[in-house]
Amino acid sequence: MSLFSTDRRIAGPPGGARTRGVGEARRGSAHERTASPAAPSRRRGRGPSAVRAGDLAAAVHRVEDFPKARRPVVAIVGRSNVGKSTLLNRLVGRKAARASRSPGKTRGIYFYETDEGHQIADFPGTGFARVSKRERESWAGLAEELFAGGSVRLAVRLVDPRVPRSPVDGEMKKYLEQRGIPTVAVATKWDRLSARERAQATRDLEEAHGEVLPVSAKTGEGIERLRREIRLRMQGKEVTSHG
Question: What is the pTM of this model?
Answer without folding.
Answer: 0.76
